[in-house]
Amino acid sequence: MAPTRLRAPRLVGSMTALVTPFKDDAVDEKAFQRLCGWQIEQGTRALIAVGTTGESPTLSHAEHRRVIDLAVEVGKGRAVVVAGAGSNSTEEAIGFMRHAEKAGADAALVVTPYYNKPTQEGLYRHFKALHDCCGLPIVIYNIPPRSVIDMSVATMARLAELPRIIGVKDATNDLARPQKILQAIGADFVQLSGEDATALAFVAQGGHGCISVTANVAPRALADMHEAWAEGDVARAQAINARLYPLHEALFLESNPSPVKYAASLLGLAAATTRLPLCEISDETKRRVRLAMEHAGLFETVAAR
Fold it and tell me: Which end of the chain has fewer CB within 10 Å, C or N?
């Protein structure tokens, strides 16, 4: 008998892995909330706060909690708010989970523990502890390039037996994975791409949407792409994808989120500042980001605001 799983039905389409703007080395709260509001206006379905793109490794715990609070203030009732709550310490992640629930987030995004290199059994026990600590739905964030370990489909299926493990953000870039997960777990397990360049192929393989870096600067175009796909307008979805593809590539020429923060600064959305050990991108990367933005028509879109 299949488990009764909590489902956040609005976790579909284009969702944004939000940058965390800084000003004078502090979180720029006004810029962050403006960005959240603009995202919703442009068709973004969910706000993802304090993930990799939000520079979670260099935020203090107080800043982490504050950014979640700020996202909920803007998004509650207007878009799904998903709180980053991952850590390589289970106890620390439990604290983030409990705060996110108290703040009013709709779900938590929890990365597989990095650096420790847990076994598959360790992964199961980590996520079960988070599942049991509060009532928030959990989306597993599987990103082997950053966390070293890869959660197997078998472990994911085992976790999916728990009612509040509702889905996965998959950043493996393995386009067979959505079908493997679909076959092993079922269609009600939410599958979200974590790779902009292959997101359209991912949904064609059974995925439900994408948690996007590019959507920080191109939210309307990506919302339109996912809507076109959902409506069966494959040609339109492919045309939008082709227009954005050079930007997807350019934003990962150097470590995320440095390139997308530079792109956001060109649109007047937020400063390009990152925290060390991330730093300013090279002049060549800046040139390629700008060219890709021009190719995507982003400067014309902002000028028309």
Answer: N
Alpha carbons within 13 angstroms on the beta-carbon side of residue 293 total 27
The reply to whether omega before 113 is within 30° of 0 (cis) is no
Q: Which residues are catalytic?
A: 141, 169
State the number of CA atoms in the 13 A half-sphere of 165 facing the CB.
24
Please write the tens of the pLDDT for every residue from 135-175: 999 999 999 999 999 999 999 999 999 999 999 999 999 99
CATH 1.10.20.10 assigned to domain 13-237? The reply is no
Q: What is each CA distance from 276 to 14, 84, 258, 280, in whole angstroms?
A: 29, 20, 11, 10
Structure tokens at 219: 């939210």
Q: Is the link from the previous residue into 257 a cis peptide, with omega within 30 of 0?
A: yes
Question: What's the chain's Rg over C-alpha atoms?
Answer: 18
Domain ranges of the chain: 13-237
The answer to pTM > 0.85 is: yes
210 phi/psi in degrees, rounded to 5? -140, 135
CA 231, 226, 108, 154 torsion: positive or negative?
Answer: positive
Mean pLDDT on 4-29: 85
User: Is residue 8 pLDDT above 60, yes or no?
Assistant: no
